[in-house]
Amino acid sequence: MKIVVRGTNWIGDAVMSIPALRELRRIFPAAHIALHTRSWAEGIFRDVDFVDEIIPFEPENNSLQTVRKQARKWRERKFDVAILFTNSFQTALLSYLGRATKRFGYRNEGRSFLLTDPLDKPVWRNEKHEVYYYLNLISAIEEHHFATRTSLDAEPDISLNVANDRRADAKEFLAQNGIDLSKKVIALGVGSANSRAKRWMPEGYASLNDLLRNEIGAEVVLIGSTDELDISEQVADLSQNKPIILTGKTTLAEAVAVLSEVDLHVSNDTGLAHIAAAVGTQTLTIFGPTNPRTTAPWNSEIIVRSDVECAPCMLRDCPIDHPCMMLITPEFVFERAAALLN
Asked: Minimal CA–CA distance to 37: which of 77, 83, 80?
């Protein structure tokens, strides 16, 4: 059997889909499983053993042209089953034009007629963690083929393997950037590419950096994408004891390896927080406008101002004075971080 999975469009979602991909491999151990996904995702799935092939793509300005080009690749491979982790009409059209024999996905945007097996979105969508949203799809496929639904029974496994040579390269990269690896190394993810409301205050991160460096003697690095360099520089400027800025200096694959070698990752609700948890690094995530019940890094520590009535609001920009973030103090975050390190 040849199976293609249309992967997610965001880093955090890609990590949260890992348990579903693992279950797909368990159910179909002899199948050829291809992951069709954005090019950056190769940096996440490079060393995994539950996917046989990654089919990368970059979206073009003309969305129909993008679909036609991708569908041509699907037709060449003659997939038996297509599984859509995305909810868009465009990806359902891709599965149809790609001539996958069976096409599983959630009903959304009027796309049901393009799928052979459309699923209703689960009623618990906003109550349970997102990992179960993807696992529910795999469970439906399991039921279709074997009349069983065991995929939702096991504890989700979100772990990511990072090869030893990549870890070694990450250590060398940190050392070359002036990091003393004999000390505790803490990575701060101070940005957020898709939502300003997710960002804890730069002043908070600057104070946290100083506490970590002065009270623990830790090495602190700032990590993230090029789009987050401005906020990283702002945090560094506000810090008395300057952190090392690695923001924009790594590919996603390199960031995955770096996060596997640090002792703690403290960040906003971002994709790198999910990656840090997946590679086994202690993770402390600051939540404000988003819902930790559904999107927190799996099995990680969480900071969230649950007593703020307006959170979670899910807004990208706060229309008032950002109380969900303003009420979180550097001292409180430091105490949680120090407890994790100990």
From this structure: 83
